[in-house]
Amino acid sequence: MNIANLMKIALKALNNNKMRCFLTMLGIIIGVASVITMLAIGQGSKDSIKSQISEMGSNMIMIHPGNMQRGGVRQSSDDMQTLRVEDYEALQSQTSYVDAISPSVNSAGQFINGNNNYPSSIYGVAPDYLDIRKVKVQDGEMFTEQDIRSAAKVCLLGKTVVDNLFGDGDSPIGKVIRFNKIPFTVIGTLEPKGSNSMGQDQDDVVLVPYTTVMKRILAIDYIQSLFCSALSEDMTDRAIDEITEVLRTNHKLKDGEDDDFTIRSQQELSEMMNSTSDMMTVLLACIAGISLLVGGIGIMNIMYVSVTERTREIGLRMSIGARGRDILAQFLIEAIIISVTGGVLGVILGSLASWLVNLIAHWPVSIQIYSVILSFVVCTVTGVFFGWYPAKKAANLDPIEAIRYE
Question: Cβ of 220: how many Cβ atoms within 10 Å?
């Protein structure tokens, strides 16, 4: 008996039990849809993380005061004041793999403009900070090195701060605002960047010369952190080695002594977040895959029922010349049709669910072709695996006993 005839017989048998066939497919449909949706959410999150890290500067390096042990006592980074302006100047002049560098000191407080006030943070930086963090000036201009030397009271505002202090749509350029009791002249505004991958508003920021924050606001002589960018992403590791050597020399640290600073790169952050995202995606896909297993068991169950119901039919077919392998093929084809059809409907449902997740929850999603191919492969394997034993049972029936079966 050829494959075409076996297909016709299988389709006729399934057509005679439409509702039972659909309910059997339902487990496969839900399983495939769940797997595709979970993988789409996971891949979308991963792509979003990569995009946002790239926007922040994929070659960015962050230097903070680090933990170290002195006199047998482990000191926390909050107690450390090891980064100085001299370190910033040394890194500027003694590194070859560092493209740009900026100190960073910040303080939180209340910004006031007339009757409007808004709580935010003020960040003291150098002009290179814009290049490092991929930030652009929208209106006005960036402060200069002369402003840094004179600790000028000038500032640039992010969009969130502008909206809260100048809600009437007036241009803030040239206006004077107060941070606590200190007046600052607005010389520029920053292009909006939105929220980052951790949900932080990147537009809720005010930039001023770092010397202004150090001298006029915090009254400190040390730097809270340093931001750098390597010449390229591939040179990040060499830039970190170079920075480490310069800082250890500057801080007169002996061999074997702990660093009194901590260096982190965007690559480390990207790898860590991608690793977490991959782990969560695999976990969710495994949970969704349980539905496929349940669907496969459903196929086995219904094929057993089908073999039992059609025992007499099987005996008649075998008595007029059908071979055991023909009966085996017939029931296997039925199982594969159920699983593959369920897989097609599951792909459609999974794509629709992914679109709805993006539309309603505003989560980033990205349906990958491999997830669709994987679903079809799993569906086919599921049909063959769970349909084999019932089909084998049908093929091994004794024709005479089968015809007598009531």
Answer: 13
Closest residue by Cα to residue 277 from 38, 58, 33, 32: 38
The span from the CA of 210 to the CA of 219, in Å, is: 12
User: Which residues are bridge partners to 264 per DSSP?
Assistant: 62
Find the mean pLDDT for residues 255-274: 79
- The single residue listed with the structure tokens 């290049």 is 131
Residues 182 and 119 in one domain: yes
Q: Based on the domain organization, do 281 and 349 belong to the same domain?
A: yes
Between CA 93 and CA 98 the distance in angstroms is 10
Angle, CA 263 vertex, CA 262 and CA 268 arms, to 5°:
125
- From 399, 376, 215, select the one nearest 324 (Cα to Cα): 399
Pick the last residue of a domain from 230, 246, 264. Answer: 230
First to last CA, the chain: 26
**What angle is formed at CA 374 by the lines to CA 368 and CA 375, rounded to 5 degrees?**
95
DSSP state of 97: S
What's the residue count for the chain?
406
Expressed as residue numbers, the domain containing 388 is 3-52+272-404
Higher pLDDT, 90 or 285: 90
Confidence of residue 76 (pLDDT cuts 50, 70, 90): very low
Which DSSP symbol is given to 234? G
Residue 94 has phi, psi (to 5 degrees) of -115, 5
* Residue 184 near residue 172 (C-beta atoms within 8 A): no
In 3D, which of 148, 150, 146 has the Cα closest to residue 207?
148
